[in-house]
Amino acid sequence: MALPKYKTSRANTHSRRANWKTQAAATVTCPNCGAPALPHMACPSCGMYRGRVYRDAIRSQFSK
Ligand SMILES: [Zn+2]
């Protein structure tokens, strides 16, 4: 295993971490209600995914 010879300077650490940025989540438009939804997920507005309603399954999952 190679070992670093020198400690990484604070400036190097900070300049590297300065490039960490957040990105907006990619969304698709729900074909049922037109609301933005995450791809490959049931629509948060109407609960539809690939022609089936998954809202009851989602509710029971989060109402424990
Ligand atoms: Zn929808």
UniProtKB/TrEMBL annotation:
Superkingdom classification of source: Bacteria
Gene Ontology cellular-component annotations: large ribosomal subunit
Keywords (A to Z) from UniProt: Ribonucleoprotein, Ribosomal protein
GO biological process: translation
A molecular function (GO) term: structural constituent of ribosome
Family membership: Belongs to the bacterial ribosomal protein bL32 family.
PANTHER family assigned: 50S RIBOSOMAL PROTEIN L32, LARGE RIBOSOMAL SUBUNIT PROTEIN BL32
Protein name as it appears in the record: Large ribosomal subunit protein bL32
Protein species of origin: Bifidobacterium asteroides
Gene: rpmF
